[in-house]
Amino acid sequence: MDRTALADFLSRHRDALQPADVGLSPGARRRVPGLKREEVALLAAMSTDYYARLEQGRGPQPSTQMLAALARALRLTGVERDYLYRIAGHSAPDSVAVSDLVSPSLLRVLDRLNDTPALILSALGETLVQNDSARALLGDVSGYSGLERSSVHRWFVRPETERWRYPEQDRDRAGRALVSILRSAYGSLGPRSRAGEMVGDLLERSAEFREIWERHEVARRFEEHKTLIHPEIGPIELDCQVLFTEDQSQTLLVLTAPPRSESDSKLRLLAVLGTQTIGEAR
Questions:
Q1: Whole-number Å distance between alpha carbons of 207 and 65
Q2: In CA terms, which of 19, 94, 185, 188 is 20 to 30 Å from 219?
Q3: CATH, range 104-281
Q4: Residue 136 burial (C-beta neighbours within 10 Å; 0-12, 13-18, 19+)
């Protein structure tokens, strides 16, 4: 680990960003040319003290999870992300595998979506980033790790965390859609990828998954309209818009409701409620 190089790299990339670049308000007159340390720490979901020590060249070796979070916060390109990993003493992530590096172009769009639920998903259904509105609607999924980061995996292994969001009559369709997306990823990434690991685990643990998997349904799209259930507000009818990266490895999913509709009013109410009751519903 090259602490000096890491400290300088983080500092320079922080200085190169403006609050508007990452969806933050500039606030009062600023004394620093770019982002503040506490702003980077907030974006990366780490303590300001921890981040400050990294910039001062005296912090511990960051984990790959921490580095992925910093790459997202600093809007690094793939080459820059790989360099960050190497100077921090880690091997760069496999460029062929599903990556936690969020597409900078999708992040720029997400940063500008404040009043409607929006999230960025990997090809395996892992939520890489979600805005506050998405957390209020769907809950904060940042606490999951391993294969459980994928909503596909949770749907079959921990159904109590996912299926309550859908009306009972829609659950069969939703499960088949999730499997078809996983099969698309499996076909692209191969059996030795994380997609292959997930398929093997689900085939062993879920008879329902095995039955759907054998249908060989393949898709890389999302329903144009769906109904989601919030534990406090009830059913919300939503339209789904999606934006894919060029290689279709990541998806920006935006959930909207027609203006002045009942569902639009419910989304506005969610902005007030936030995530304060989500955890109680699980």
A1: 32
A2: 94
A3: 3.30.450
A4: buried
Question: CA-to-CA distance for 52 and 41, rounded, in angstroms?
Answer: 9
Q: Domain segments of the chain: what residues?
A: 3-87, 104-281
Closest CA to 230 of 187, 267, 188, 176: 267
What six digits make up the tokens of 166? 């859908």
- Give the chain's end-to-end CA distance (angstroms, integer): 41
Calculate the alpha carbon distances from 13 to 55, 63, 81, 186, 219 in Å: 11, 19, 11, 35, 38
Q: How far apart are CA 86 and CA 1, in angstroms?
A: 8
Walk along the chain (282 residues) and give the pLDDT tens digit of each residue.
888 889 988 988 888 888 877 877 776 666 767 888 998 998 888 999 999 999 999 888 999 889 988 988 888 877 788 788 888 988 876 554 556 678 777 888 888 887 899 999 998 999 999 999 999 999 998 889 899 999 999 999 999 999 999 999 999 999 999 999 898 888 878 888 889 999 999 999 999 999 999 888 877 666 788 999 998 899 999 999 988 887 778 899 999 998 899 999 999 888 887 755 544 433
Residue 203: CB atoms within 10 Å:
13
Q: How far apart are CA 110 and CA 184, in angstroms?
A: 25
Which residues contact residue 44 at a Cβ distance below 8 angstroms, ignoring those fewer than 6 apart? Answer: 51, 66, 69, 70, 72, 73
d(CA 93, CA 96): 9
| Contact present, 87 and 5 (Cβ < 8 Å) | yes
Q: Which of 142, 118, 143 is nearest to 23 (CA)?
A: 118
Q: 142, 45 in Cβ contact below 8 A?
A: yes
Give every strand in the sheet of 225-230, ordered side by side: 127-130, 118-122, 250-256, 234-244, 225-230
